[in-house]
Amino acid sequence: MTRHLLFNLGRSVLVLFVVTFIVFALMYGDGYGIAYSVLGLTATPEAVEAKVVALGLDRPLLTQFGDWLGGAFTGDLGRSFYTGQSVSEALSTRVPVTLSVVIPTLVLTAVISVLLGVTAAVRGGVVDRVVQVISVGGTAVPSFIVAIALVFTFAIRWRFFPATGYTKLSDSPTAWLASVALPMVALLIGAVASAAQQFRTAVLDTIGRDYVRTLRARGVRESNIIFGHVLRNAAAPGLTVISLTVFGLLGGAVFIEQVFVLPGMGQLANMSAQISDVPMVMGTVLVMVLIVLVVNFTTDLAINLLNPKARTR
Amino acid sequence: MAAALVACSGGTEAGNAPSPDATGDPGAGATADTGGSKGVLRLAMNQDIQGWDIGNQPGYMGWPAEAVWDTLFKCDAFNELEPDIAESWEINEDRSGVTAHIREGMEFSDGTPVDSAAVEASFTYIKETSSRAADYASLVIETPDAYTVSLTWDEPQVTLEDKVCAPKITTPALIESGNTNDEPIGSGPYVLDAAKTTRGSVYAFAKNENHWNADHYPYEELLVSVIESETATVSALKTGQLDGARVTAPSVAEVEASGLNTKQYRAQVPRLILSDRTGEKIPALGDVRVRQAINMVFDKETVAQALYLGHAEPTAQVFRPGSRAHIEGLEDPYPFDVEKARELMAEAGYADGFSIELPTMTGQNHETVLPYITQQLAEINITVEQVPLSGANAIGDLLSGTYPVVFWELGNIGDSAMQIYIEATPDGWWNLQHQPNEYVDSRFEQMASADEATSEKLQQEINQYIVDEAWFAPLVYAGGFWAFTDDVQIPTDSFVEGLHPALRDFK
Amino acid sequence: MTDVATTIPLTGDARRSNKSVLRRLVANPQAVICLVWLLGVLLVGALAPWLATSDPNTTFLAETNAGPGTPGHPLGVDSAGRDVLNRLIWGARESAMAVAVVTVVSVALGVSTGLIAGFYRGRFESIAGFITDVVLSMPGIVLLIALYALTGPDVLAAMAVYGVLLAPSYYRLVRSIVLGVRNELYVDAARVVGLSDWRIVGRHVLWAVRAPVIIQSSFVMASGIGIEAGVSFLGLGDPTSSSWGIMLQQSFNSIYNNPILVLWPALVVSITILALILFGNALSDVLQASARSKVLPPRARRRALAAAREALPGPTTEPTPLGSSDDVILSIRDLRIGYPAPDNSVNQVVHGVDLDVRRGEIHGLVGESGSGKSQIAFSTLGILPKEALVVSGHVMLDGEDLLADDTKLAEARGTRIGYVPQEPMTNLDPSFTIGRQLVKGLRAARPMSKADARKRLEELLVSVGITDPDRVMGLYPHEISGGMAQRVLICGAIASQPDIIVADEPTTALDVTVQAEVLEILRNLSLERGMAMILVTHNLGVVADLCDTVSVMKDGLIVESADVEELFSNPREEYTQQLLASSRSVELMEDNDE
Can you give the residue ranges of the ABC transmembrane type-1 domain (chain A) (predicted)? Predict the structure, then answer.
C-alpha cells in the first residue's frame, strides 16, 4: 500500500505542476496592458515601460513561471500587481471565509445525503421517489439562481438574515452563522441533490451484491445486513461521492460569493482574473488545486484503509 | 466585489447615535463637543483601492485616502483652495506656483512631525514615480524653513489648484523604505485599523483625535466596504448594513421605499465622443455635418425618461452648471430630427453611411443605452459593431485611439478648466485621438495666466466652439445618487468630480 | 447478475433497433414532455430570425420597463427598452450554440480517447489517465475566468474549454465500456475472423458505447446550459449578446427596478436543464434499465399480482403431496414466479412447477440458463430479487407452507434450509474475514457463543478438507482460492445442520479438478448427515455423478422428472433427449479445450 500511496503522491505533485503551468500560460500575455491597467488612465508611456520592467512582465513565459514556482516552493507567492498586497496575506484572510462556508456545508451535505440516500435505497417506495424528485429539482436550478431567490425571500422580504457580507466566526459566532446561513443553504441544495442520488446508487449497488443474498440465505437479520455489511461496503464509493462534493462546493463558492458578497477566495479569483492580477490568480489556483489533491489523496488513503485487499498488500 | 461588514451583526440596528447631531456648520473650528460625536459611518465603494501607495489613489470613492492622509491643501467642489496642512498661502502672480505656510504641531500617525521636508519628499515621490509624473515634470520644490514650502513650475499652470491639492503627504522615512504600498502613514483625520481590515473587502478606520480639524469629522469609526455589484449594494443598504452608498437611477425607488434618503449627484453627461474630428481614421467624421447629424438622431427627452427613469435632463453641452465654462440657457442646436440628420448626411456625401466599431465594457451601464444608440445611428445608415473590451487591457484599449467613437458616461468636473484639459486639449486622455485644435488650444494656453473673468470668457468660448463643431453627442445631464440613512447628514459637497460626497461632507 | 452483466449492461440492448427505442421513448410521458420542450427550444433557436418580431437589441424606448402583458410585448420590455420575448427567442439560439460547442468538444475528445485507451490500452491509456487526472484537478471555473483574460468575453471559447474540462467524463465512461466489450466473446470472435481493428471498433464497440454516450450527453448539455448562465452571471459574457445567461445577469443588475425580468431567463434556464436531466433519466430507463425489471410500488404490485392471478388457467388446488408424505422434506406446488413488464403487467418466468424432495435425497434441477431453475431455488429460501412477484404456489417444508408465512420462512432460512451459491468469490463479503462471516452466519441460525461457533466451524472446515482452519478463518476472501471459498461457503451452509441444502450451480465457477473435489464433499456430506439437497445445474455430468433424482426444466416448466438412471437410460421427452445429446458434444468440446 505504501508504494501505491507514494506513487499517488508523486502523481499529485506532477498534476499540481502541470495545472499551475497551464493557468499561468493562459494568463501570460500583454505585460503592457497589465502595467497600463495598474497605473490607470493618466499613465505616461515611460511610466508604463518602467512598470512592465518592475513587475518583471517583460521576461519570457518560462522564466516568469520558473520564478513563480521557485517562490512558491519557499512559501513566497509574490505580491498583487495592483495592490502590492502579499498573496499569502490575501489568501490567509480569504481562504478561511470560503472554508467557513464550504466545510459546514460539506458536513451537512454528507449527513443529509447519507440519510436520504440510504433511506431511499433501503426503504424504496415513497421515500425513494421523494429523494429522486429532490435530486432532479435540486440539480436543475443553478446554485446562483437559488441564491438570488434566497436573498430575496429571507434577507430582503423577511429580513431573517443579512443580504450580503461576512462576519468572522471569532468576532461573533451568531453573526457569523447569520452571514453564512443563506450561502450555505444555496450551496447545500445542489450538493445534497447530487450526493444523495449517488449515495442511493452506491447502496443499491451494494445491496445487489451476491454476498448480501447469501447473508440473507444464512438467516442474518436484515438490519444487521444493512448496517453491518451494506454500509460498510458502500463506504468506499461513498467517500468518493464526498470528495466529488468538495470540488462541487469549491466551484459553487465562486458564484455564491459573488451573490452574497462574501470576501472568499472564489471572489478573489474572479476579481483578480478579470484584471489579470497574475500572482493573485496563481495563489488562489494553487490553493484550490491543493485542496483538490489533498482531498483526493485522503480519499484514496481512506478507501485503501477500508479495503482489506489493499490494506494487506 | 467584497463587503465583509465586520461591525454589523446582521440586523437593522447599528452603532449609530439615535439622533442626528446638530453641527450642520461646514466651517471648521466648532468647539469640541463630545455630544456631537457619532459612532460608526459605513460606506461602500464599488472598486477596491490599489494598496496604500500615495501615488496611486483614486479620486472616485477615495474616502480611504481622504481618511488617512492630509494634503497640502484641500480643493473644494470647484477646485478652490482651502487650508489643510497649509495654514495660509500665496499663489504666484502668473499662476506658475504657490508658497505654503505649514500648520505647526501636526504629527503623522507614527509620531513624526509634519513639516516641509515631508511635503517635499511626498511631492518628489509623486513627481518621480507616479502615473501623474508628467504633470509635475518641471516642478521645483523649495523649503526655506521647516514650515514653509514653495512649489514652482516653469510656466503658468491652468490646473494649478488640482496639482497642489492632489498629492497625499506621508513621511520621508516611509518613502525611503520603499514599502509605500503596505500600510499608510499619514496625518489625516482617521487612522487605519489594521486588525479590523480585510484588504479587498473592508477597510476600517479609527478617528485620529489629534487631527488639526478633528471636530469636523463627527464619526468615531469609519468602515469602507468594497461591494462591486449594485444589487448587492442595495441589498446591504436595505438591510441596514450600510449608512451610505452610491446607487444608480434604477435603484432609487427601491432604496427610497426602504426608508433611505437619496440625493442626486448630477455630474455626468453620457455621450458619444466623436474624437476623430480631422477624419484621420473615419473620413466621414471629419465632416462637421456628419457629427451634427449624429447629434440629431437621439430623442434626448425620451432617453431621459425611459433609460434614466426621469432622473436626467436633456443637454447640449458637457459642462456642469455653476462651472465657468457652462453657458446658461444654451439652446440645443441639434434637436431630435432624423429627417434633418439624413439631409445633413446626404449634403456631406454620406447618405449611404459608414460603419464604426463601438467599444463596450461591462459595469458601465452600456447595456442599457447602447442598444438605443445602435438603433438610432442605423437610421442614418451608420452601422455599429459593438466591441466588448475586457480584462487588464480594457482601459488601455479604450483610450488608445483605436476607437474614434466611444460611448461613455463621462463626468463633468467642477473645475471646468481641468475638464477642458482632459477632454479637449491634445494631452487630454479623453481626447482619444489627441488631435490638436488651434481655436481651443490657444485659448487654453491663455487661461493659464488669465484672471477669473477672462478665464470664464475663454472657457465659454471653448464650450460654444465644441458645441458648434459637435465634438461630442451629449445625451442627457445625469448622474448617480447617494443613498443614506436618516442618521447621516450631508450639508456640503466638496468633491470636485461631484460624483458623491467627500469624507468631510458627512455629518 | 454476474460481473459481466453489471459492467456492460448495454451489450444486449445495443443490438436493439432504433425503432424500438423510439417507440419505447414515445410511450414514456416524461420523455415525451421533455423532448417536446427541448425540440421546441431548438426549433425556436433555429427559426429565431423568422419567429422574433425584430432584432434582439431593437429598442422600444417609450415602453421601457413595461410589464408582462403589454400589447405587442407579451413578456414585457427590459430596462434598455428591448422586448423580453424577442430576446428569449434569440437567446435560445445562443444557448443552443453554446451547448452544442460544449457537447461536440467533450464528445469528440472524450469518446475518441476513451475508445483508443480502452481498445489498445498500453502507454496511451496511462498518458490519457494522467491527463484525465490533470483536467479533473483543474479548478474549472477559475480556469474559465483566467481564459477570459486571454480571449475576452467570448462565450463560445469558454464553452469549448468547458467541453475540454468535461471530456474526462466521456473518457472514463467509454474506456470502461470498451474494456468490457473488448473481452466480450463477439469481439474476440471478430478478431479471430480477421476483421481489422477499425472495423471492430465501428461494428461492435461504437455500437456498445452509443447509448451511454447519448445519455451522458443529456447531462453534459444540462451542465452546459448552467455554466453558460453562470459564466455570464459572473460578468464574463459578451454584453451585446442576448443569451439567457446575459439576460439573467442584466436583469439581476436591475432586479430592484424591475424584478420580474429575472424570472423569465431563470425559468427557461431551469426548465431546460430540468428537461435535459429528466430526458436523460428517461432515456437511460429505456435504453438500460428496461432489461432489468423495476421494483413496483406496493399498489402497482398488488394490482399486477391480482391481474396475473385472474389470468391463471384454473383455480389453484390445495397441495396434494405426491408419494409418501412422511418421506418428503420439501414439496413445491404450482409455483409461479414473474417479473413486472414495462407496462406493469407480469411477465412469468416460472409457470406452475411441482417438485418433491425426499429426506436424504439429492435432487438435480437441470435446464438451460433462463429456464427458471435458479428462481425456484431462490424462492425456497425467500431470496428472490426485490422486484420478483410470486404469483401463486406453495413451498412446503415438512408440511408447513413457507410462502404463506413470512415468519416461518425467516425461521427456516439458514436454519433448516442451507444455501450454497454459484460464484464463490462474490458471495463472501470482501470487507470481513472468513471467520467473522462464518461465525455470524452460524449464530444467526443457531444462537450460541462465539467461541462455540468458532469451534464447530473449525471442525467443519477440516471435514471439507481445509487442513489449517485457524489460519483460513483469519483470512480475507481475496486471500483464498475459488475452491477454498466454495468449501467455506459449503461449511457456512451446513454449519447449522439444515434438513435440506439448496445448491445453485455450486461448481460452475470452479475449474475442473476443484469441481470434482467439491462434488465429492457434497456427496459425502449428504451421505454422512442425511441431508437432502436441491442441486441446480446445467451440467448433466454433475447430475449423473451426484444425483438420485432429477427434474428437467424448460421455459419455466418441469418437463420431465425421474430417477437419474431412468432418465439417462430412457429419456421420455424429446427435450430431454436433445439436452442429453448436446451435453455430450459440449463435454467433448470442453475436453478438447483442456
Answer: 95-299
Q: How many CB pairs under 8 A join A and B?
A: 165
Please state the rounded mean pLDDT for residues A258-287: 87
Are residues A60 and A144 located together in one domain of the fold?
A: no
Query: Both A211 and A305 in a single domain?
Result: yes
Cβ contact (<8 Å) for B395 and A259? no
Q: In C180-255, where do the E strands start and end?
A: none
A80 assigned to some structural domain: no
Q: Which domain holds residue A11?
A: 2-73
Domain edges within chain C: 23-287, 324-416+498-585
User: What band does C323 get if pLDDT is binned at 50, 70 and 90?
Assistant: very low
- Spell out, as residue ranges, where chain B has pLDDT lower than 50: 1-35
pLDDT at C238: 82
Q: Supply the CATH number for residue A181's domain.
A: 1.10.3720.10
CA neighbor of C231 nearest in space, from C146, C304, C309:
C146
Probe site for chain C from B302, B366, B375 (most C CB atoms < 10 A): B375
Instruction: List chain A residues with CB under 8 Å of B56.
Output: 39-40
pLDDT digits (tens, 9 = 90+) for B212-238: 999 999 999 999 998 877 878 888 888
Contacts (Cβ under 8 Å, ≥6 apart) of C556 = C348, C349, C350, C351, C353, C371, C372
Task: Specify which residues B203 forms β-bridges with.
Answer: B224
* pLDDT (0 to 100) of residue C146: 78
Query: Rounded to a whole number, what is the distance in Å from the CA of A175 to chain C's nearest CA?
Result: 26
Average of per-residue pLDDT across C48-62:
86
Same domain membership, residue A132 and residue A33 = no
Please tell me the predicted confidence (pLDDT) of residue C291: 47
**Confidence (pLDDT) at B334:** 95
Query: Mutating which of C155, C240, C243, C254 best tests the B interface, going by the most B Cβ atoms within 10 A?
Result: C240
For C324-416+498-585, CATH gives 3.40.50.300
Q: If you measure CA to CA, which chain B residue comes closest to C254?
A: B250
C-facing residues of A in 253-292 (CB < 8 A) are 254-255, 258, 266, 269-270, 273-274, 276, 281, 284-285, 288-289, 292
Number of domains into which chain A is organized: 2
Closest chain A CA to residue C2: A210
- In the predicted model, what is the mean pLDDT of residues C460-487? 88
Kindly state whether residues A104 and A57 are assigned to the same domain. no
Is A215's CB within 8 Å of C432's CB?
no
Rounded mean pLDDT of chain C?
82
Q: Which three cell numbers stand for residue A9?
A: 503522491
Q: Residues A23, A136: one domain?
A: no
Kindly report the backbone phi and psi dihedral angles of residue A19, in degrees, each rounded to the nearest multiple of 5, phi listed first: -65, -45
Q: Are residues A60 and A126 in the same domain?
A: no
Q: Which of A28, A47, A73 is the last residue of a domain?
A: A73
Q: What is the mean pLDDT of chain A?
A: 86
**Per CATH, which fold does C23-287 belong to?**
MetI-like fold (1.10.3720)
Q: Would you call B396 and A33 a contact, using CB atoms and an 8 Å cutoff?
A: yes
- Is A104 a member of any domain? yes
**Do residues A240 and A116 share a domain?**
yes
Is there a domain that residue A287 lies in?
yes
Q: Does C70 touch chain B (CB under 8 A)?
A: no
Which residue has cell 516568469? A64
Does the pLDDT value for residue C344 go beyond 60? Answer: yes
Specify if A78 maps to a domain: no
Residue C162 pLDDT greater than 70, yes or no: yes
**Domain co-membership, A142 together with A253:** yes
The sign one gets for the Cα dihedral B389, B393, B398, B403 is negative
B29 or C110: which carries more pLDDT confidence?
Answer: C110
On whether any CB of chain C is under 8 Å from the CB of A221, the answer is yes
- pLDDT of res. B13: 32
pLDDT at C280: 86
Q: Are C492 and C464 in contact (CB under 8 A)?
A: no
- For residue C541, the model assigns a pLDDT of 82
Contact A308 C413 (CB under 8 A): no
For B356, residues 6+ apart whose C-beta sits below 8 A from its C-beta are B282, B377, B382, B383, B384, B385, B404, B405
Q: Do the bridges between strand B382-388 and strand B354-360 make them parallel or antiparallel, or are there none, so unpaired? A: parallel
Distance, in Å, from the CA atom of A265 to the CA atom of A91, rounded to the nearest integer, reads 7
Strand C500-504 with C532-537, pairing: parallel
Give the residue-averaged pLDDT of A203-221: 89
